[in-house]
């Protein structure tokens, strides 16, 4: 029986195939296909809104979709959300020296692609929560809703007729979803 050695975060950063993106889940590589145009548009629009709010209120730092977060070690898990935010209170005094941010962000935003399945999306949200994420937004363009995950509470679906708020992570942030999904 053949066995494979788990890939580490250090090995992941050295993979030289520029045309392929990966996430690392418990030492196993998972290829990430390029996003479709609708996905990219929504990520960009939401990144601008969150980024402007964070900058205006000096709340912390935002990260784009290419950013890896090392959320588990031995075996390593490195995930790359579509959008991430870390609050000032959780920023280290000095910038991390390693390639991947060494913890989960406070806010994780994942915009679904058509091929994403509910079970996989929920599993990923639970990984973020287990690693210390405080607020996970699962943005579903097809259903025009956002499922909100928080620690120790059941997920809440915010329909397109309502507004998405930043809770305790992005206090005061409010996004009417009807206009966002147009």
What would your notes on this structure say?
It is a single chain. The chain is built from four helices and twelve strands. The model has no long low-confidence stretch (mean pLDDT 90). It has helices at residues 9-14, 37-57, 118-130, 177-181; strands at residues 21-25, 28-32, 60-63, 69-72, 77-79, 83-87, 107-111, 135-140, 145-149, 156-159, 163-166, 170-176. It has a six-stranded mixed sheet, with helices on both faces. It has a two-stranded antiparallel sheet with strand order 1-2. The protein has a two-stranded antiparallel sheet with strand order 4-5. A hairpin with a 2-residue loop joins strand 1 (21-25) and strand 2 (28-32).
What kind of sheet is the major sheet? 6 strands, mixed
Q: What share of the residues lie within helices?
A: 10-25%
Number of strands: 12
- Rg from alpha-carbon coordinates: 16 Å
* Biggest sheet strand line-up: 3-6-7-8-9-10
Give the terminus-to-terminus CA distance. Answer: 53 Å
Mean pLDDT: 90
Low-confidence stretches are: none
Q: Count up the helices.
A: 4
Tell me the overall shape. globular
The string of secondary-structure elements, in order, is HEEHEEEEEHEEEEEH
Fraction in beta strands: 25-35%
Which structural class should the secondary elements be placed in?
alpha+beta
Provide a compact summary of the structure.
With 182 residues, the chain is of the alpha+beta class.
Topology:
Blueprint: H1 9-14, E1 21-25, E2 28-32, H2 37-57, E3 60-63, E4 69-72, E5 77-79, E6 83-87, E7 107-111, H3 118-130, E8 135-140, E9 145-149, E10 156-159, E11 163-166, E12 170-176, H4 177-181
């Amino acid at each position: 029986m053949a066995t494979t050695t788990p890939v580490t975060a250090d090995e992941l950063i050295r993979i030289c195939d520029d045309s392929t993106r990966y996430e690392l889940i418990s030492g196993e590589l998972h290829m990430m296909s390029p996003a479709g145009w609708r996905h990219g548009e929504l990520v960009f629009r939401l990144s601008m809104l969150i980024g402007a709010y964070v900058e205006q209120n000096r709340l912390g730092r935002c990260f784009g979709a290419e950013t890896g977060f090392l959320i588990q070690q031995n075996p390593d898990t490195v995930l790359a959300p579509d959008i991430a935010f870390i609050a000032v209170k959780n920023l280290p005094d000095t910038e991390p020296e390693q390639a991947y941010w060494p913890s989960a962000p406070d806010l994780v935003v994942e915009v679904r692609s058509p091929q994403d399945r509910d079970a996989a999306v929920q599993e990923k949200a639970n990984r973020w929560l287990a690693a210390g994420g405080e607020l996970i937004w699962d943005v579903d363009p097809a259903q025009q809703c956002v499922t909100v995950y928080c620690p120790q509470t059941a997920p809440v679906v915010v329909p397109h007729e309502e507004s998405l708020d930043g809770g305790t992570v992005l206090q005061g942030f409010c996004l009417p979803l009807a206009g966002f999904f147009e």
